[in-house]
């Protein structure tokens, strides 16, 4: 069952974008949403710890996380009701539907106590969503605010692509624009600022010649 939140305009856009794509999203995205599995492996969720995915989409990442960290308590929020329906069905097919808790919410301003009955999480991750969220910096700040002591925010998304051929970068940027995706080339810089403001530590990782970036913010 999904939690409740007020209607969100950006959610209407995402519903339109993914109303049909959600049915074949995972089959196509696996070829270029690189670094997701590396990020999940690096979560190192403590035994019985909680994990929240912001922009959980089809549920693919949460299901993989539950399989890799079977003692974890999994949660997910998304701004697209269409995607939440798909995520719930995917979890049920995987035999995990009774464990996964999902909610419709604006990641830039959400109340986890109202949605899930808890105030913070041991791990929060965002996979290829900051490049689609206009207020992505606010989303990252909000996520850090909901980390438990010692908790971590993990973000994976497109990198600056600087070490890849120019023709490839141009073609990819054009293709991404069609789907309202904007790579955040200042992700590492912004993550460092957010971490400093929160008294946390920031780590960075570059994958596949800059195609994918992983940013980690760790609360002390």
From TrEMBL:
<dbReference type="GO" id="GO:0008168">
    <property type="term" value="F:methyltransferase activity"/>
</dbReference>
<keyword id="KW-0489">Methyltransferase</keyword>
<protein>
    <submittedName>
        <fullName>Class I SAM-dependent methyltransferase</fullName>
    </submittedName>
</protein>
<dbReference type="InterPro" id="IPR041698">
    <property type="entry name" value="Methyltransf_25"/>
</dbReference>
<dbReference type="GO" id="GO:0032259">
    <property type="term" value="P:methylation"/>
</dbReference>
<keyword id="KW-0808">Transferase</keyword>
<dbReference type="Pfam" id="PF13649">
    <property type="entry name" value="Methyltransf_25"/>
</dbReference>
<dbReference type="InterPro" id="IPR029063">
    <property type="entry name" value="SAM-dependent_MTases_sf"/>
</dbReference>
<feature type="domain" description="Methyltransferase">
    <location>
        <begin position="51"/>
        <end position="151"/>
    </location>
</feature>
